[in-house]
Every structure is written in C-alpha cells, then in structure tokens.
Amino acid sequence: LTVRASSYADELAKTAKTVASPGRGILAMDESNATCGKRLASIGLENTEANRQAYRTLLVSAPDLGKYISGAILFEETLYQSTTEGEKIVDILTKQNIVPGIKVDKGLVPLAGSNDESWCQGLDGLASRSAAYYQQGARFAKWRTVVSIPNGPSALAVKEAAWGLARYAAISQDNGLVPIVEPEILLDGDHGIERTFEVAQKVWAEVFFYLAENNVFFEGILLKPSMVTPGAECKDRATPQQVADYTLKLLRRRIPPAVPGIMFLSGGQSEVEATLNLNAMNQAPNPWHVSFSYARALQNTCLKTWGGLPENVKAAQDALLLRAKANSLAQLGKYTG
Ligand code: 13P
Predict the structure, then answer these.
(1) Terminus-to-terminus CA distance in the chain, angstroms?
(2) Which of 9, 104, 147, 257 has its CA 20 to 30 A from that of 36?
(3) Alpha helices in the chain (DSSP H)
(4) What share of the chain is helix, strand, coil (3-state, %, to 5)?
(5) pLDDT tens digits, one per residue of 48-76
(6) Using one digit for the tens of pLDDT, what is the confidence trace for 246-289?
(7) Which residues of 304-337 are buried (b: 16+ CB within 10 A; e: fewer)?
C-alpha cells in the first residue's frame, strides 16, 4: 500500500492539530432539521428557519467560546446562514478562533438484508459537495453511522459502516476537509460493558482496515467514538474509572498514535457524566488528544435555559460556557466538579 499524497496533506494535518489543541474540543451543533425540530419542540418552539437561526446564533456568539471550543460542526443550512444582524455564522466562528465543520452524511436508512439495522447514505455527489463546503469556509467534516448491539451487530452492518466511513474519509481529504470518523455504537440495550467492549473492538478493527485500504492519511483524520459503557438499560452501572479503563484499553488496542485527536460523542449521557468520564480518561498522558465532540452534553441546559426568549440569551450562553469550561478542564484531566 502506498499512502496517497493528497495535495492537502500539510493543511489537513494542521487543521486536525488545531481542532485537537490542549484544553479544547468540539461543539456539535449539526442537528439535522428533523432533529433540531425535536429539540425546539422540547421548549415549545416551532421548527422554523428563524428559530433555528436564533438558537444557533446564540451558541456561536457566546463570549470567548473559543477558549474551550476549537471546532463547531454545522448542518448545511447553518454553514450558509447569517445572523439576524447579517453577519455570517462562519465569520463569527472564525473570529472566535473556532474551526467551522460540516455534517456531510445524508442520514440513516434501513440496511436491506440485515437484522433491522441501518446504513448511512451520502457518498453520491460527496466530492462536489465537499469542494463547495471548503469554498464556504468549512475545514473539517463529519459522517455519523451507527451500529446497534441489540440488533446484532451483523457482520454485514459492521462492514457497511466501516466501508462507508473509509470512502467518505478519502473523499473528504481529497477536498481539503479533515474527516471525523464516527461509527457510533448506540447505547440502547441491556448488555454489560464487556459486550460493548467486544463490539467496539470489532468495529474499530474493520474501520481501520478499510481506512488503510482506501489510503486515508491518518495524520489528517479525527475520530469520534462512543465511550465504552454498559447498555442504557443494563442494571450494572459503571463508574467513570471503569468507563475510562475500558475505553482506553480499546483505544490502545485499535487506534494508531498517528491519529491526532479522539473526540468522544456524548450519546445520551448526562452533562455531568460526560464530563466525569472524559476527565477520568485524562488522568494520565495519552498518545492522542482525548477530548469531546458533544451535542446534548453541551447544549441540554443551555437550550432549556433559553426557552426561546430573547431575555434569556445571556443566561443560556452562560450555561453553555459552564459546560464548555468543565469539559475543557476534563480534557486536561483537571475537572474537580
Ligand atoms: P451527542 O453528543 O448528543 O451524542 O451528539 C454528538 C453527535 O454529533 C452525534 O453525531
């Protein structure tokens, strides 16, 4: 195998390093319009473009957000959106020293021939969309596929997830975007932590096999794994120390040190749980930057505090900054509660 010399190699490595900088992580704010609608409904708001714009403006303009946040993942609508005052969201991020990123997958659909599992669409036209996103200011991309433990996972679903991620990663790099590789292992199920560990080992082995086969440049990618935890309905809960031990064992067995950053998703963990687990993983030096790329675990309290009211914007931004700072400390292994 020869490693493809992407004309963007230096820039990709630099972007990945910037996103993986000490004490910072990613704000995932790339909910699709359908998912954003669910979040807005939870505070009694209609899913209109204006409401999505108001909420996302609140997030990106939180004062000094860039102290804790190195990258923000946007949905396509937001990448091309301006605030009500007419400033481009991408420009606000750049001023905050936050790298703009873009969700490029087209979502999950049933995987024919599987045990009611899913696959992730979006490879058709991806090269031209990626080039346009780069022009618009995006420097990294995200593709989220999922693996379900209660439904298998079948060998077919794991192979499809890994292959899709690898094709996406190669196409992103050819167009100057650092790919975030995200095979989310869903929390649903009553399985124990050992079972999650076993499935995660299988998934990451295949992901790296196909990344290598597609000549992906490892210094220019970021990973977005799930932490290794028991299933959401499992009666035996795990301490942050246990989650950290299993998750780091997985990373050491499967992830080469050439990969600059490992940015965990929160996957339905509570805000505090997600911070404590990240902090536990950073108690000793790691070969990679181990950080966060949270959506719900950064936004839940912020969204509730806002409630759609202009007079609550400042309090909502404070709530976001509180979580961002806590996770920044956790990235450094210095969170004390
Ligand atoms: P959560 O942190 O809410 O799991 O979302 C992260 C994300 O972007 C999932 O793709």
Answers:
(1) 47
(2) 147
(3) 9-19, 33-41, 49-60, 76-79, 89-95, 126-135, 155-174, 193-213, 240-254, 271-281, 296-306, 313-331
(4) 45, 15, 35
(5) 999 999 999 999 999 999 999 999 999 99
(6) 999 999 999 999 999 999 999 999 999 999 999 999 999 999 99
(7) ebbeeeeebbeebbebbbebbbbbbbbbebebee
- pTM for this predicted structure: 0.96
Token reading at 264? 């965990």
Give me the catalytic one of 76, 182, 206, 271.
Answer: 182
ipTM, 2 dp:
0.93
pLDDT, tens only, 323-336: 999 999 999 999 99
Largest CA distance in the chain: 58
Strand partners, 82: 88
Atom 9, ligand 1: which residue's CA is nearest?
265
Ligand 1 contact via 185 beta carbon (within 6 Å): no
d(CA 303, CA 305): 5
69 and 25 Cβ atoms separated by less than 8 Å: yes
- The β-bridge partners of 181 are 143, 223
Q: Evaluate: CB of 323 within 6 angstroms of ligand 1.
A: no
Query: For the chain, which ranges sit under pLDDT 70?
Result: 1-5
Res 1: pLDDT: 42
Distance, CA 122 to ligand 1 centroid (Å)? Answer: 18
The two tokens of residue 105 are 């997958």
